[in-house]
């Protein structure tokens, strides 16, 4: 069979099965931030064969070097701008208050997938977490990077569950929103590879709903819960 025919058949199979590019090959993922979420996702993505580039304010810091060594699979640490420039998928694993300024500092993100796992949050005087903005952090990021495909994901579970989903003692669902279907599927593929379920729940304007789920976690059980969205077989 000629190579062109093989390529057509592979493309047809990928489209028919609903598989994103991650299923056909390794992604290059920039983890902007090396805290709990960045470290957890970076290590898990690398375990599944993806190239991980950590973007850090201080790539030579001892804790960053330790993270790179623990991640393996050719992981490296560079500046945040360098990491974003080299990757096809950019994960903003940073505090929500820093996300906008960091996006402004990055090179052109046009055509890249930008994953936002942040949760806008302030603590009220009564000790409960409150939502401090009118829209969503994901929508704000999208306005700053209009050429990027912004996807909201990984914001409804803790870093410990990212590292080891079995700690949840049951399936864990990652709700995903965004305006580009192909971008959402590539992010969903990453989630499935690390043992999580992924469900597309609509366009990016629904990000505020996803971010709102964080408050149930934070206010009810101090963040010690996860979400599972099972299909209703009666409606299939």
Domain module count: 1
Per DSSP, the total helix count is 9
- What's the CATH H-level superfamily name? NAD(P)-binding Rossmann-like Domain
**Rg over C-alpha atoms, rounded to the nearest angstrom:** 18 Å
Strand arrangement in the largest pleated sheet: 3-2-1-4-5-8-9-10
- Unreliable stretches, pLDDT < 50, 5 or more residues? 1-24
Rounded mean pLDDT score: 85
Q: Helical content, roughly?
A: 40-55%
Number of strands: 10
Shape: globular
Task: Based on the model shown, name its key terms.
about 240 residues, 8-stranded mixed beta sheet, globular, single chain, 10 strands, two-stranded antiparallel ribbon, Rossmann fold, alpha/beta
């Amino acid at each position: 069979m000629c190579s062109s025919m093989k390529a057509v058949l592979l493309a047809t199979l990928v489209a028919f099965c609903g598989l994103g590019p991650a299923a056909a090959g390794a992604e290059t993922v920039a983890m902007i931030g090396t805290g709990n979420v960045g470290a957890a996702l970076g290590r898990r993505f690398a375990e599944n064969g993806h190239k991980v580039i950590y973007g850090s304010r201080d790539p030579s810091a001892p804790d960053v070097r330790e993270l790179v060594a623990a991640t393996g699979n050719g992981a490296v640490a560079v500046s945040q701008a360098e990491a974003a420039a080299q990757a096809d998928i950019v994960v903003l694993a940073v505090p929500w208050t820093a996300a906008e300024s960091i996006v402004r500092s990055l090179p052109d993100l046009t055509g890249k997938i930008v994953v936002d796992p942040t949760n806008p949050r302030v603590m009220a005087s009564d000790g409960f977490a409150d939502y401090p903005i009118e829209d969503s952090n994901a929508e704000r990021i999208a306005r700053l990077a209009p050429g990027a495909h912004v996807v909201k994901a990984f914001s409804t579970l803790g870093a410990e569950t990212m590292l080891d989903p079995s700690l949840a003692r049951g399936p864990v669902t990652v709700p995903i929103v965004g305006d580009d279907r192909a971008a959402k599927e590539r992010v969903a593929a990453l989630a499935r590879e690390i043992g999580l379920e992924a469900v597309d729940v609509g366009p990016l304007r629904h990000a505020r709903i996803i971010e709102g789920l964080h408050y149930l976690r934070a206010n009810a059980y101090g963040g010690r819960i996860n979400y599972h969205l099972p299909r209703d077989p009666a409606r299939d």
